[in-house]
Design a protein that fits this description.
alpha/beta, Rossmann fold, 3-stranded parallel beta sheet
């Protein structure tokens, strides 16, 4: 389960247009990455999975993203690469949400719905229940 994942840590992507302006400045993201990586080579595929030349051996993935997240394009690209390599992928997009929406808890309707979607996808993956078509 990948929750609004950072999949290419070579550089901090620019933020998308965000209607509510809730975005961590690029300098804050880069500072967090430096602290997290502690000098580790950012081009290693185990650090930046988008750089893995052959994702075919990766496990099935549930990828949850937020609509207004600078990391969403990376996650979408990763999902496409996994599918092309024959890896099962379930994508969930938190429409209207920002990075970090899981921390908003159940007090807000849309984050709670996204959390329920993620939970249902995990349940289906663990029980072998097939995906139901999602309403348009």
């Amino acid at each position: 389960v990948l929750l609004y994942p950072a999949l290419d840590l070579r550089e901090v992507p620019p933020p998308p247009p965000d209607p509510d302006g809730l975005d961590l400045p690029r300098s804050g993201v880069d500072r967090a990455l430096r602290a997290y990586l502690r000098g580790t080579d950012r081009t290693r595929p185990d650090v930046s999975p988008l750089l893995d030349p052959d994702p075919a051996g990766l496990p099935p993935a549930i990828i949850a993203t937020a609509e207004h997240d600078r990391l969403r394009p990376q996650a979408e690209h990763h999902a496409d690469r996994l599918r092309a390599a024959g890896v099962p992928v379930t994508r969930i997009t938190g429409t209207g949400l920002d990075h970090g929406f899981l921390g908003w808890g159940a007090f807000a309707r849309r984050p709670a719905e996204a959390v329920a979607e993620i939970g249902a996808a995990v349940h289906r993956a663990l029980t072998g229940t097939p995906d139901r078509p999602r309403p348009a």
